[in-house]
Design a protein that fits this description.
Six copies of one chain form a homohexamer.
Chain A (H helix, E strand, L loop, with lengths): L4 E6 L5 H14 L4 E6 L11 H21 L3 E4 L7 H7 L4 E3 H12 L3 E5 L5 H11 L5 E6 L13 H16 L4 E4 L8 H8 L3 E2 L1 H14 L27
Parallel strand pairs in A: 1-2, 1-3, 3-4, 5-6, 5-7, 7-8
């Protein structure tokens, strides 16, 4: 139980500032024997705000999963609310892989009958909708909201995006008939705890939730199933830029 | 992170042997700073194999939740696969409450695309079906199976029930197109780890899963939402045998 | 067809006033050969406004079902809109058991393509939502509304709650795109007929609906199935306060 | 309660023998003050075994509804398991209209957690599937079976079809995990009671179920909602053969 | 590919003006080798605004399908947004049959993640709702709207209905979070192209969509499956007015 | 209508043989004025048999979409049964983008009430399952089957895979209660027509279906909606290997 273990927290975009925010949030909740390795791809998109961005980010996630596996990490977190590349990453990984959207949504259903989601740009709402459907939580979601600011506004130091998130949470609690809020962006990881305290309802960040989920799975000895459709990718000649994924 | 904390693991039936099995399983995965308080009601049913049994067990769960809260435990586990009294318990509790069916199902979706359930008596399958629907995991369940032995057969020392569970797991993995197995009874808690090793696929027990879930929620500062429908029960004159729930 | 028969109408809370309201409503629609036995538990909660209350009420329901069965009643109604203890009661009963929520919802789908629900406290809405899902009527429900008054306000003699129900029905008909209203509380049983007349749309009370459902099932010779998961509870040593359920 | 009332039971096909079977079954369960008016269209199809047959039958149903309304009947039953023309009939009717498929399915969910359907030709199964989806009972149906004999085989006097139904019921109870059987054809109306007795599980016929449903709705004062989409058809010049529907 | 082929476009109502509108729209998109045969029943309803109207229209559709098949058309379009008689028509037809509601909905899901529907009278919304459920597109529909004018207002020459459609489309795009609009009436067929251009989002008409769908199916050699439940109707003695459907 | 137009058919894997098979199938059904541009990525995976392969293939798809858009093609087909990168491709494209899984599934629902899917490796079944859920066709799918041979076995010239597909189709038609078969791999494109003829039921290939779908959308003037979540990707600094996607 107390032997050292490393959890790789992958920010799928290339923003170092956000990687730091995410890493710090992860460390704040990690168990004493867990070391957090916060990484991001060297190549990719600076922020993820649509399916195109996600497709690119998925490659970065896979590269990091491969590196993490070679480094012997015990599990992986995909720290973008769309969980880009999740099932592909599970194929590649030996240990557990948890996305922050799924982690936050799962946790939310344990402390409230229904939750609302507060995210960044309206165009990303469809990604959250599809995840709710895929994970089975449509009936547990009271409403989805976007503050209509881009992801990187969370890193501009002005605090404007943070204040908009806060306002939207307050309004959701009043109007949606929800018992908890899920924050819909990895860049909001540092807001969850203070909002939970201020608003008196669970405000859930996926980064921290996913770290605890991975720790839990590791403690239970539960790795990604290699029986069936999450088995390691069939060995093939990957060509060009993808060779290094071999 | 490292201050002492107590998690109350409630076996909703009155079987002391099963309470011990459950408590031992819980302790085996608990974090270093977690103390497991394994309890069961003093009054109730010796095993839970239907809705009637569950209705009775729910009262025992509520009594224990009340005691646990007064003892200052940080969270609660309901250690029967039907999660009896779960939402009522959440109303009564301050900390998080996690049922072992939901914990096992949640965990299963993180390591496999589809799981099968192996439980005891056929008549309990409907309870699992309803939970799959309520939790949102119908699409993640490949099949449900019953070994057709009562719950307490798991405590008779013969190992017969255990062997039937094992056989049913093996068959499920071969035939169901599932990547993981969820064990459908708190009394199977001690089988998960050895079956996982032997069969090479995640075999998931809800007791241990729920303990890690509660630890995770506590570490994240996430208590049961008291905003809305899981708020504390409205104070009323409970009469007769229920007075002590006041 | 014309031999005497007794239907037991169980008010799951301990309010005698409400038991009387319910009994009177039941009698007003019962067939000539049906005698209504309106009962309530001697121990329990004075009103039911959440899952905790429901868990307690379920025990009272089971006690009454047992008494009713011993008295030779032909069927049972559970007269609280959450249908507390319904499946457990079906295990225990020989004759049919019908909850008032299910009865009202079923009836509503026969006279309108979509219905709205008007109930008491907002915190009970989640119970109605879950029942809609369990019974299969999510697509038939246009909207759910709460008048934000407790159940017992319906018994305070002021008529305030009744007026709020009426207003909410009128607004629902105008705005929801529904063709019928389901009243979401046993204590509203006496309002259905006058509202139906005044508003010119079916306003459906579950108590009366359930009585007719039970009469129908009895006339058809349809008892609760004892094949499979609604079979009588497996005989066990029930301990303490639950002994009398044996 | 005891004033005379007439329920119109419409056999949507033109088989007089089947109309008689259906009428007799209806009369056997009708209340003392209910007169059963068993009718069938003068023009149409001799049996209904597909969507084409249903489309034709729907016109016959509407003609009979119009006649019934003019005769002052209190409600209508559509006695074909596909419930042909149900919503159109509700637009046309003042009183309640109940289809035998919906009646049987509703009743089945009240006495068992899951039911199986036994019907005639395989090609009619899709109609039952669609009704399950439309009525919300997909989760309550364990399996659908066809005896692979045409509807009119039930009227050929040989008893072969009846025996095949019986065999299929027995097998369903053994294998499907269901607690009740729904008979999927109006022509099976006379089998329900004896099969219920022989097999010891509820075997449900829709004709008798629908009669009791209509009686119940009438007793409750619940007519088809004329607010919204079931309002009377907008008056139009119906031309040619349809003029008489004006 | 380039041999002549005839597609029969059936306006299920008897309005010749609307048949012309529909035929013209169909011709505007038909391939060079496709001849459009725009027909309507000689007997029936002048417009379709409810289930009753649909039941009558279905007969007209079947008569036309029969005629079309005898004329050797390669496929059929049912040009009313409720797709009346669709499955019955498929039984009767050899070639493909496509309804305009399904065609428009299918197309919409190919160019947008979610679409809104704009139709005529509120009472027809339920028909669209049921089709969304039957076709599987509930999750792809953002909202349904009615302009509250009857179908034939589209043919009164005033342009009022057309302007209301346009206004409702503009509002939907602004408020619904949809990426495309589906026009919910065959009589709006001539509006799609100009609205698409003006509003800059796909505004989809089902008549034109269905014509292209039928052409596609024909080019692929895909006829209506005669294996199973869409096989030709079983030969029977159709009596009276239905004889000519034999 | 008759001006020249180019449809880009993208084989997302790098197999030139399969690209040729796909291109030939596409050309065989293309309209006279349609030129088929069959392409595949220069870098990527030789075949796609899991989520990992799909994630890589998605990048190749996006690169080709970009090239195609610059070449002025009128629309795009993604010719792999998992529709990899579909929504990302729609963001990037101006014209319509259609995946072969969605095209085949849509077409299948137009000619049969239920279809079965026959694909290659069992591990790809989960991808088809998820697409059924996402596209809304779960209820239209009777069964999913895998022949348990890898994708490239279709290109080995032995005909073994083709024969296994044929056998599986025959068995499906006999046992599944389906009216049509959907072929679950782009490499089966050349089998559809002969199997349709031999088996007498629609056997549907997505490549050809998608070509006709794109032609249809183009003829209707329907491009991918740029209003909302399928708008062009927000301009960002794509780094490293992804620069060329800018």
């Amino acid at each position: 139980m107390s032997s050292k273990q490393v959890i790789q927290v992958i920010n799928p975009n290339t923003s170092l500032a956000m990687t730091e925010t995410i890493g710090a949030a992860a460390r704040a909740v990690a168990a004493g024997n867990t070391e957090i390795l916060a990484v991001c791809p060297t190549q990719g998109v600076p922020s993820i705000e649509g399916h195109f961005d996600e497709a690119i980010a998925a490659i970065g996630v896979l590269e990091q999963i491969k590196i993490g596996r070679e480094q012997g990490v015990c599990g992986h977190v995909i720290a973008c609310f769309g969980d880009p590349g999740l099932l592909a990453a599970r194929e590649m990984a030996q240990g557990p892989v948890v996305g922050i959207a799924e982690a936050a949504m799962h946790m939310a259903t344990l402390v409230a009958t229904r939750f609302s989601i507060v995210t960044t740009l309206p165009r990303t709402l469809i990604i959250a909708r599809h995840l709710l459907q895929q994970y089975g939580f449509e009936h547990h979601c009271a409403a989805l909201h976007a503050i209509d600011l881009p992801v990187l506004a969370l890193e501009d130091g002005s605090g404007l995006a943070q204040e908009k998130v806060r306002q939207r949470c307050i309004q959701s609690i009043r109007e949606d008939g929800c018992g908890a809020i899920v924050l819909g962006c990895g860049g909001m990881a540092d807001l969850a705890q203070s909002l939970t305290r201020e608003l008196g309802v669970p405000v859930i960040d996926g980064v921290t939730a996913a770290v605890k989920m991975v720790e839990s799975l590791v403690a239970l000895g539960l790795n990604t199933s290699k029986h069936g459709d999450l088995d390691y990718p069939i060995r093939k000649n990957l060509s060009g830029q993808f060779e290094r994924l071999n």
